[in-house]
Design goal:
The N and C termini lie far apart (about 40 Å). By secondary structure, the protein is α/β, with parallel strands linked by helices. About 45% of the residues lie in helices and about 15% in strands. Helix 3 packs parallel to helix 4. The chain contains 8 helices and 5 strands, in the order E-H-E-H-E-H-E-H-E-H-H-H-H. About 25% of the residues are buried. Pfam families: HTH_8, Response_reg.
Length: about 180
């Protein structure tokens, strides 16, 4: 049985299909005083929001099955006061515009940490951004390419030929890229 949360702790719903990333973010939010509920899919997120409407929500854009934009729409329908941040590894102007049109406060790319999310929330509310302890260091182009290849390969369930087709690469070129170690940040 869950202990009652302090009345001043903001409630946050964190919905992302990457379990390790989701739990890392949840732990960091809890350390900053948030009451965090987590979900790995749109359906789990909706069930959690129906039990207790969160004040804040961080929603991944791409998840198996229904996507994050559908969840944004449904969370806003459940409680229009829920402040939503959309998080994605596949940013585009069109999806950013759509997320904001559906009611998200902000749209930020992965990789992101709690400080990035809190700053995005502050920007969405028109508040000054909280100070960040260390300067953001963008991943190298090689690292971003490697992460994108890994995500596409996962989306193709490990099928190298299909991943190569989606990436616009020759299958053997993709195999050579996969044999390399991941580049450092």
């Amino acid at each position: 049985m869950a202990s009652p949360r302090p009345s001043d702790a903001p409630s946050l719903l964190l919905v992302d299909d990457d379990g390790v990333f989701r739990e890392r973010l949840a732990r960091a939010f809890r350390e900053r005083g948030f009451e965090v509920a987590t979900a790995g899919s749109v359906e789990e997120g909706l069930a959690a929001a129906q039990q207790e409407s969160p004040e804040l929500a961080v929603v991944d854009l791409r998840m198996p099955g229904r996507g994050g934009l559908e969840l944004v729409r449904e969370l806003r329908a459940l409680d229009a006061s829920t402040r939503i941040i959309v998080l994605t590894g596949y940013g585009s102007i069109a999806t950013a515009v759509e997320a904001v049109r559906l009611g998200a406060l902000n749209y930020i790319p992965k990789p992101a940490d709690v400080d990035d999310l809190l700053a995005a929330l502050a920007r969405g509310l028109g508040e000054p951004s909280p100070p960040v302890a260390e300067a953001f260091q963008a991943p190298s182009l090689a690292r971003a390419e490697w992460e994108h290849i890994q995500r596409v390969l996962a989306d193709c369930e490990g099928n190298i030929s299909e991943a190569a087709r989606r990436l616009g690469l020759h299958r053997r070129s993709l195999q050579r890229k996969l044999q390399k170690h991941p580049p450092s940040q």
